[in-house]
Design goal:
3-stranded antiparallel β-sheet; alpha+beta
Length: 339
């Protein structure tokens, strides 16, 4: 697997296999305990410099085991404990026959996530080979007020373990109300759980639709110039108009006007276009190839830092690729091709 120009090829796990840890345990509480997440949180008053409780509309969400403050929220904020989250995962797994896969937290519990995998994957033909996808579901919540309780599917291409992202734009385009899969932390949180479970079939339909649409990208030809502009648009690479055609410093060897850093990124993308993962079957010079080059870059290379001649994991970027800005970047990469 090509990783970066000038650095020896390295077998690097995809981001979704690096964030959090494998779920270990025969019960939900065992899984929480083995992950170091079997704690509770509670609302506590905000105190002034003299130690007096302040009469405000806000409270501090605090871990009861360590006393660590995780965030400041409205006192109307509804707490959803990690134990409640694992119970919800158990209900979902019992409903589908799936099993919890991974579990983790960010900033000692400010955000928490759990994932489980569908027992059956999806596939489609790609020339003389088969494209296989496993379907994972992510359940994300927070104890700092940064996000509600959200559930979304995330297909993973098995050939390279690239992770796709299905977010609001996809749901809207396919007539699905994304709000049915997201719950605010409020006093109504518990009652909305049943609604989320009732709408779970929407996720199954969404995952199947994604794989059907992805197969259609094989029939969309993309020339080199179109692919380069696509990479620029998805990754937000900076272009200098003075270096482009008609500019005062036009450089025919750099027609897209990319700076040094952007050119280095483009070199990596061009190398990834030639990797075994992105040249199988009939995917050469297609939208399907371009999309998988982007997701492989984000999941495998963007989440790593250069350290001399080594590649070391950037934990924040890894979390981002799975459930943050990097995840949204992958969703954008998909929507630009199919919307």
């Amino acid at each position: 697997m090509a990783e970066t120009v000038g650095i020896p090829t390295t077998e690097i796990l995809s981001a979704f296999n690096r964030v959090g840890q494998e779920a270990v345990g025969s019960t939900g509480m065992e899984v929480l305990r083995n992950a170091g997440m079997d704690y509770r949180v509670e609302m506590r008053p905000i105190y002034d410099a003299n130690g007096n409780a302040m009469d405000t509309g806000y409270r501090v969400i605090t871990r009861t085991d360590t006393g660590q403050a995780l965030g400041v929220t409205s006192k109307k904020y509804g707490i959803f404990q990690n134990s409640q989250m694992i119970d919800l995962i158990d209900r979902l797994c019992n409903h589908t026959g799936a099993q919890i896969d991974r579990i983790g937290q960010v900033d000692n519990g400010a955000k928490v996530f759990m994932s489980f995998r569908n027992p059956e994957g999806l596939s489609f033909a790609n020339g003389d080979t088969q494209e296989d996808y496993d379907i994972y579901w992510y359940l994300i919540s927070s104890h700092d007020g940064s996000t509600g309780l959200k559930m979304f599917p995330s297909p993973v291409r098995l050939f390279c373990n690239n992770q796709a992202s299905i977010l609001q734009a996809f749901f809207a385009r396919n007539g699905i109300d994304a709000r049915s899969l997201s719950i605010r932390h409020s006093n109504l949180l518990d009652t909305r759980i049943d609604d989320l479970l009732a709408n779970f079939h929407l996720i199954n339909n969404a995952a199947e639709t994604f794989v059907e649409e992805a197969s259609g990208l094989l029939s969309v030809n993309m020339g080199m110039s179109d692919r380069i502009q696509y990479y620029i648009d998805v990754l937000g690479l900076t272009q200098n108009e003075d270096l482009m055609a008609g500019g005062k410093d036009y450089d025919p060897n750099n027609p897209f006007g990319l700076g040094t850093r952007a050119n280095n990124t483009m070199d990596i993308l061009m190398e990834l276009e030639t990797s075994d993962t992105n040249t199988v079957g009939d995917m050469n010079d297609t939208a399907y190839q371009a999309y998988n080059v982007v997701t492989e870059y984000i999941d495998h290379r963007w989440t790593m830092d250069k350290d001399g001649k080594q590649l070391v994991e950037n934990e924040k970027a890894t979390e981002s690729a799975v459930m943050g800005p990097g995840m949204r970047m992958k969703a954008k990469a998909y929507e630009l091709l199919v919307a």
